């Protein structure tokens, strides 16, 4: 078989199951693999936005589509197990939330179309061949990059210029890819100061790290991490207790009492992910759908937290904030 004929046949193989279901009138199924917990506020916010996006395209769970969920709750051991369970159910398409989720699905070698949401460095981790031409059966929406991490450090330097360093909190079992980002930052030193990789894999370690960072006169970055978001409320409380200036990618950090949050609009990404799911269910091949970067960002400040921390928030920051919580 010539290469061109093979590629045409391979493309048809990917779209055939969807076409067959359309002919039989069978209700399609969407598998959803979430790396965070079902009862987390952040998890519910994401899924609510995803379902809104589906509904806008005419897909309603239990009527025009069936949605099957798996929630790993920040536990790295559950992610490959749930990925296997979803693949065995043979859904028409899978929404993979987070880098560990899409990597677990890729490792299974499945040909089921996969749309990812909030993946770090999709090319670097091997999720796609390139952003403009993903190739294979995977595409979706990226999350943060080294530039955003540098932005967090700059924000902390504005409110706490005496901070010795910023600890980047993450669980390496869930997100080992932060080391790549930090190497990229080190290659182009940031004027705002040093960011230190701070791996944790238990809440006791989180408490210890925050106490030590406060004693050292440092600051804290709570980056995208399924493990950290599980304890976002507790982390926010601890930063106030230890008088530790902190910024997170999660808006929930600020609503729970933390100082600042800056990052992509997560509900917007999940609504847009639903658009890709819609296109796949209608026959599109993920290989032809370019990976998209975040287009909307949100910056929130909690002025009550600033008072508790003994900080004076610069007017320049308050003026540029999308949301100020008092």
Strands, count: 12
CATH class annotation of the largest domain:
Alpha Beta
The CATH architecture classification of the largest domain is: 3-Layer(aba) Sandwich
Strand order of the largest sheet: 7-6-8-9-10-11-12
Low-confidence stretches: 1-23
CATH superfamily of the largest domain: Response regulator
Distance from N terminus to C terminus (CA atoms, Å) equals 67 Å
Describe this structure in words.
This protein has 326 residues and is α/β, with parallel strands linked by helices. The chain folds into 2 domains: 173 residues, 3-Layer(aba) Sandwich (Rossmann fold), CATH 3.40.50.2300; 147 residues, Response regulator (Rossmann fold). It contains 13 helices and 12 strands. A 7-stranded mixed β-sheet has the order 7-6-8-9-10-11-12, with helices on both faces. A 5-stranded parallel β-sheet has the order 2-1-3-4-5, sandwiched between helices. The longest helix is centred in the first third of the chain and has 22 residues. The N terminus is likely disordered.
Q: What is this structure's SSE topology?
A:
Blueprint: H1 3-24, E1 29-34, H2 41-56, E2 66-71, H3 78-88, E3 93-97, H4 99-107, E4 114-119, E5 138-142, H5 146-159, E6 166-170, H6 178-187, E7 195-199, H7 203-215, E8 219-222, H8 226-230, H9 232-241, E9 246-248, H10 251-255, E10 260-264, H11 266-281, E11 297-302, H12 303-309, H13 315-320, E12 323-325
Parallel strand pairs: 1-2, 1-3, 3-4, 4-5, 6-7, 6-8, 8-9, 9-10, 11-12
Antiparallel strand pairs: 10-11
